[in-house]
Every structure is written in structure tokens, then in C-alpha cells.
């Protein structure tokens, strides 16, 4: 079984003007597709992973018996696939509030606004490429960032909301203004 690029759940221009159509094309059709292609190469040389759940594999990546280079490829490209799949799903042109999450965010962070402020700060100050996350960590909501394509599953956490702060996610429209991208992104993050 090889992984395939999932279609975007909306049109490439659906997140305009906040996320531009060209960025969505390159981000989905080139970057996400490349992670999947490289993930499939890593899986070809490790047939024991065939048919296993990717997120579960990520949680136990140290005990899968992978060579160091395959392990790195798996973390980068399996993470790239998982991270982007969630990213497309939590965005959309119209709000689709997850009420349960909404309540839990309010009780954990005081208000949705303070949650947004905290995640935005983490995202804006993350050095280099990576992601800012809201995760479920053993039933508790937490915010942190990870480098590169490292998935929260590597720590045993379940990603709930992920904000891609790689330059490929915003550079065409926002250039070096990452905070402007982050501010705009909340308009298309649909679950809160
Ligand atoms: Mn990306």
C-alpha cells in the first residue's frame, strides 16, 4: 500500500484573500506531494510497516527497527504527510466550530482569545521551519512548537490544531512578515 495525496477539501482559491491560491497550489501539489513520495520510498525498503497506522508508527518510531537514515526519512516525510493532512482539514472558507473543543480551550486557557494569542506567539517566535501546535497530551490541552516536520505523535501527543510556519506556507504573499500570515490564518482556521 502506498500513500496518496488527499484532495484539498475545498478549492485552491477558497481561502483567499488570507491564503492565496498560488501558495495553496504549491503547498499542496508540490510540498505535500513530495513528502508523500518520499514517505513511500522509505516504506518500500521497510515492508514490515505495510498497512500499519502512520500515527501509531510515529509514536513508536524508535522501536520499528529502522536504520538511522530510514528513521529520519520516516519522521520527516511521515510527519510531513500527517501534519499537512490535518492542516488542510482544520482550515476552510467558513467557520465550523467544534463546540466541545471550544469549551475545553476556554476552560484550559481562560478564553479562546488568550489561546489564540498564546499559539500566535509561539508560532511567531519559533526559530526556523516548523509548526505551532495545540495538542491533546494525555487528556490535557497543551501548546508548543516543533521543528521541521516533527509530529506531536513523536511525543505521544495527539495534534488538534497545527499552524505551519515554514516559509513555503506564506512567503509568496507575506514574504518575511510571518506575524501577518499568522493573524490572517485565524480567519481560515475553522474549528474555533
Ligand atoms: Mn507546509
From TrEMBL:
It comes from the Bacteria. It catalyses: 2 superoxide + 2 H(+) = H2O2 + O2. Residues 99-189 form the Manganese/iron superoxide dismutase C-terminal domain. It is an enzyme of class 1 (oxidoreductase). Residues 2-91 form the Manganese/iron superoxide dismutase N-terminal domain. One of its GO terms (molecular function) is superoxide dismutase activity. InterPro entries: Mn/Fe_SOD, Mn/Fe_SOD_BS, Mn/Fe_SOD_C, Mn/Fe_SOD_N, Mn/Fe_SOD_N_sf, SOD_C_sf. The keyword Metal-binding applies. Its EC number is 1.15.1.1. One of its GO terms (cellular component) is cytoplasm. Pfam families: Sod_Fe_C, Sod_Fe_N. Keywords: Metal-binding, Oxidoreductase. Mn(2+) binds at residues 27, 84, 164, 168. Belongs to the iron/manganese superoxide dismutase family. Destroys radicals which are normally produced within the cells and which are toxic to biological systems. This is Superoxide dismutase. It comes from Candidatus Roizmanbacteria bacterium GW2011_GWA2_37_7.
